[in-house]
Write a structure and sequence with these properties.
Pfam families: FAD_binding_4 (PF01565), MurB_C (PF02873). InterPro entries: FAD-bd_PCMH (IPR016166), FAD-bd_PCMH-like_sf (IPR036318), FAD-bd_PCMH_sub1 (IPR016167), FAD-bd_PCMH_sub2 (IPR016169), MurB (IPR003170), MurB_C (IPR011601), MurB_C_sf (IPR036635), Oxid_FAD_bind_N (IPR006094). This protein has about 300 residues and is α+β, with helices and mostly antiparallel strands. A five-stranded antiparallel β-sheet has the order 6-7-13-11-12. Strands 1-2-5-3 form a four-stranded mixed β-sheet, with helices on one face. Strands 15-18-17-16 form a four-stranded antiparallel β-sheet. The chain has three domains: about 5-85, 2-Layer Sandwich (Uridine Diphospho-n-acetylenolpyruvylglucosamine Reductase, domain 2), CATH 3.30.43.10; about 95-200, 2-Layer Sandwich (Uridine Diphospho-n-acetylenolpyruvylglucosamine Reductase, domain 3), CATH 3.30.465; about 220-300, Alpha-Beta Complex (Uridine Diphospho-n-acetylenolpyruvylglucosamine Reductase, domain 1), CATH 3.90.78.10. The protein contains eight helices and 19 strands. The longest helix is centred in the C-terminal third of the chain and has 19 residues, at about 270-290. It has helices spanning about 5-10, 45-60, 110-115, 135-140, 180-185, 200-215, 235-245, 270-290, and strands at about 20-25, 35-40, 65, 75, 80-85, 95, 100-105, 120, 140-145, 145, 150-160, 165-170, 185-195, 195, 225, 250, 255, 265, 300. A hairpin with a 2-residue loop joins strand 9 and strand 10 (about 145).
């Protein structure tokens, strides 16, 4: 029995067979529609299963990667070795008083809409963010003047040892599009947001306005990873890219959006290599023209294709 078969057999002892896939194409699970294969693709249905997979990974020295829906992630064409965990089955959302509790596999958009239904204000800014709750915490997602750190009370995580631990928002070092979640080796499994009662009509008016702004300005008709670059101090990334005459520039199937210069879209079956090459071209062009370094907001992980 080879090593891969042994790992598969051990995983079947921890997770239901239908939730363990071998050599699964990651592009089929990602918002960007990019990425190669995962050796093992696991979709747990309980916190205990996550804990057990993390412990197996530690005991057998198997690398593991947590994956949301990839709305702010680019996976290389060679895929990811070891175990990839996706929490799409953990997507429950409920409320307790003025708080909304959402599991990490739920979409942050859905948490925002749920809050609206419960007449709770504070998550309006998230009504157009395509990522999961876990991903939103990971990068302290934000839009239109709001961000996760404004409303997060606490989260439950599975730590790098496989323990289920409560983390207060203040312990996560939430800052502009960053946190310490990855550095600590934590897997967010649940988040509690502290919100405020408000009128349904007032909350909906704000959400409708933000949705209109997003739909009118962003290229939602194509797969993308959202805003590719962080906002450089004193500038706007999209404006710099636009002023560099880069809109419409393409490499392979990847293109700098003509609708919003801050987006790179998967226009025609782009590969990750196309995407990365175009990102680097944009960075170099803006640096040469304006002397400004554009730092990526989107993460790039995985192996290069052989």
């Amino acid at each position: 029995m080879n090593k891969k078969q042994k790992i598969y057999n051990k995983l079947l002892e921890l997770v239901k067979e239908e939730n363990v896939k071998v050599d699964e194409m990651l592009r089929d699970h990602l918002y960007t529609k990019l990425g190669g294969k995962a050796d093992f693709f696991i979709t747990p249905t309980s916190y205990e299963e996550i804990q057990n997979v993390v412990k197996l990974s530690n005991e057998d020295n198997i690398p593991f990667t947590l994956l949301g829906n990839g709305s702010n992630l680019i996976i290389k064409d060679g895929g990811i070795r070891g175990i990839v965990i996706n929490l799409k089955h953990l997507d429950a959302i409920y409320s307790e008083g003025n708080t909304v509790v959402a599991q990490s596999g739920a979409r942050i958009i859905d948490a925002s809409r749920y809050a609206l239904d419960k007449k709770l204000s504070g998550l309006e800014f998230a009504c157009g963010i395509p990522g999961t709750v876990g991903g939103a915490l990971y990068m302290n997602a934000g839009a239109y003047g709001g961000e996760i750190k404004d409303v997060l009370d606490y989260a439950y995580v599975v730590d790098k040892h496989g323990n289920l631990v409560k983390r207060l928002a203040a312990e996560l070092d939430l800052d502009y599009r960053t946190s310490n979640i990855s550095a600590n080796g934590d897997i967010v499994v649940e988040a509690t947001f502290q919100l405020k009662p408000a009128k349904y009509e007032d909350i909906k008016e704000v959400m409708d306005d933000l949705t209109f702004k997003r739909e009118s300005k962003q290229p939602l008709e194509y797969p993308s990873c959202g805003s590719v670059f962080k906002r450089p101090p004193g500038y706007f990334a999209g404006k710099l890219i636009q002023d560099s005459n880069l809109q419409g520039t393409n490499i392979g199937g990847a293109e700098v959006s003509k609708k919003h210069a801050g987006f790179i879209i998967n226009k025609d079956n782009a590969t990750t290599s196309d995407y990365i090459s175009l990102i680097e071209h944009v960075q170099k062009t803006v640096k040469d023209k304006f002397g400004v370094d554009l730092e990526r907001e989107v993460r790039i992980i995985g192996d290069d294709k052989d």
